[in-house]
Amino acid sequence: MEEIDLSDRRGLIAMAELYNIASTESLAQQNGNSNNNPASHLRHRAMSPSQSDASVRVRKPGETKSSRVICSLNNLLVLLFVFVVILLAAVLFTFLISKYHFGHAAENAQLKNNNQSISSDGSQDNSEEIISETSHGPTAAELRLSKSLIPLWYNLTIKIYVPGFVEIPKEKNLSFDGALTIKIRVDEPTNKIELNSIKLGLPSGLSDYAILEDIPVARHRRQTDDANRTKPKTKNSSEAINDSGEKLPPREPSGVKVVKMTQNETLEKAIFELSDTLKKGQEYYFQFVYTGTIDSKLAGLYLTHYADKNGAQRYAAVTQMEPTDARRMVPCFDEPEFKAVWRLKIIHPVGSSAVSNAKEILENEETEHPDWIYTTFEESLPMSSYLLALCVSDFEFVEGNTKRGTRFRIWSRKEAINETVYALEAGKKVLEFYEDYYNITFPLSKQDMMAFPDFSAGAMENWGLITYREKYLLYNPKVYTPLQKQSVAVVVAHELAHQWFGNLVTMKWWNDLWLNEGFATLMEYKGTDAISDGAFRMDEYFVYDAQDEAFGRDARASSHPLAFPIEKAEDVTEAFDTITYDKGGSVLRMIRAIMGEKYFQKGLTTYLNKYRYSNAEHTDLWNTLSEAVPEGLNDWNGNKFNVDEFAKPWTEQMGYPVVNVRRVDKNRIELSQKRFKIDEDAKEPPKYRNAKWWYKWDVPLWYSVNGEEKPMKWLHE
Ligand code: BES
Ligand code: ZN
């Protein structure tokens, strides 16, 4: 598409200036007021200073006025002298800047040499060429994993050295040991396994990695028959048994070996080069042990702490994986599309308990060491790595069951356990509500929700184990305001909405994050009403709350389209903002209003069933919703309403229209639309300047004449 500067295309500058001056006051007021909005304390999503500044820049009259300059010979000489001085200064400046830049490039190169590589001859190669040594960092493609290998399941045993429970050897304190098997399917032949991994200690001996395969059934039967004939009857040692007593299929070395291992911290990958090619269609088991450290920065597996009632420090280890921090705890295929089943065994100190996504099978079992116990968990459902969660703590819980028998537990530190009662009631109620709304039974046998003193987000929707900041889960009517009660309800409703939309069906890639968060935002209003039996009247509040927030942000040139390419997973953190949540929710609400709730809901159920345990893109939702559009619902052109076509201008370009109404005569009015910008002069970032749809939208209009409601009409153009 050609590069066009839309600020030149407007041709409305004079009018816009007039409009801006006239509307500055009322708009500034409107924006300032949004902070009084009772639920806006929840909308703490990252805001840049320009976003939070509600003032409007208005050019002062005469600001650009130029003055006449009279020039004499003396003046000319002075000017020439000044010019030469500036030129010399510029040369010196350029020299210093280049020196500084190249100095840093050299430092960067050194830093990157921290990437370690170990070859089969045992040599360590620290001068890996691994990534292009430009100052721009790796490309988006380099950061992605190939689709040649697909993880089917992970079996992870993890021993977590959380302090404060038992004596821990100094060198082990705040670390963890992992033993991992990944079952991998080969979709394209390859002689390389790439896993995401950050700051994990992988074995340096290449013989510590095993690549196994199943023993073909016929051969295995023959071998065991032979063994049984020749040996006295004892328990067959070739048959592995798992923690639930099930027989594991027999495996043998595949003959493929790891010949080189490179840990590239820049690409956040561990790369294993193999002696042979993994065969297409085959399944392999990749096995190794590793170590890691419990993080101190609220990412991956991190340490959280609090003071108990005696003022003593207590510790717990908990995870926060979204968007890309699972790779800090376990080497894995850390992209949302690689859904896999997780089987976990957690070895934890005596006095602690372990919780994870799935229900426990064996709890607090003895190990051979008296200080350590273990807990095993059922297999998770197939899920994305960003939803993986575990916690080792001395927390307590309250428990209940939903009508359909889902075990529901709310966990907190001991001192706060009486403040969990509201969340338990709220959680059960809204889970039952969503089962009815989505018309899909909650797919897990249990749901845990835990409150943490340190937590980076407000809450996180890990499947079966939702984690919260304390203030969004705990409620004590004697101490907290009704508004805090409301925010607990809102956050619980939001995270439980994700258990279907987001967890059961997950976005293929992070560019559709807005759909995930926008949808949960839409549902949190209905969910909160279900929790409060309508008392909070949250659904009515959507326009004043979420939509108004979205308007405030999206009226600025610094906004961005809802859908924009996210090439690097690391960029996704920036996308968690008001546009993603509130505009996302508002656009979905508009689609719901156009279709009618009944049809929207039906389409949603079809979508969730069609893509369950799998991934989808926004177009998949639009197409499924379009199939649910009722007969007679047409677009502006008289064709059957198509959600994809309608949604594009609303999601692919930033901003929104303001509709002007002009009375033509006694019986007629004329409507027109124009993008609403709080400052007409402010320019969009160049990458969004070419609005794909010329800042026009199809606007559904609901209106009434003399109190009589009329059918919806379209404003196109
Ligand atoms: N998935 C998010 C949590 C999250 C946010 C993870 C940013 C990683 C980065 C969760 O569903 C969420 O939206 N939490 C909100 C609370 C909610 C009630 C608005 C949050 O943390 O702001
Ligand atoms: Zn969310």
From TrEMBL:
Residue ranges of the TM segments: 76-97
Region of interest (Disordered), ranges: 28-60, 115-135, 220-254
Pfam families: Peptidase_M1, Peptidase_M1_N
Source taxon at top rank: Eukaryota
Signal peptide: none
Family matches, as Gene3D superfamilies: 2.60.40.1910, Neutral Protease Domain 2, tricorn interacting facor f3 domain
InterPro entries per the UniProt record, alphabetical: Aminopeptidase_N-like_N (IPR045357), Aminopeptidase_N-like_N_sf (IPR042097), M1_APN-typ (IPR034016), Peptidase_M1 (IPR001930), Peptidase_M1_aminopeptidases (IPR050344), Peptidase_M1_dom (IPR014782), Peptidase_M4/M1_CTD_sf (IPR027268)
Active site per UniProt: 495 (proton acceptor)
Keyword field contains Hydrolase: yes
Zinc recorded as keyword: yes
Record keywords, A-Z: Aminopeptidase, Hydrolase, Membrane, Metal-binding, Metalloprotease, Protease, Transmembrane, Transmembrane helix, Zinc
Segments forming domain Peptidase M1 membrane alanine aminopeptidase: 422-650
Known cofactor(s): Zn(2+)
Binding site for Zn(2+): 494, 498, 517
Listed GO MF terms: metalloaminopeptidase activity; peptide binding; zinc ion binding
Gene Ontology CC annotation, any one: cytoplasm
Residue ranges of domain Aminopeptidase N-like N-terminal in the record: 151-387
BP terms from Gene Ontology: peptide catabolic process; proteolysis
Entry's family note: Belongs to the peptidase M1 family.
UniProt protein name: Aminopeptidase
Organism from which the protein derives: Acrobeloides nanus
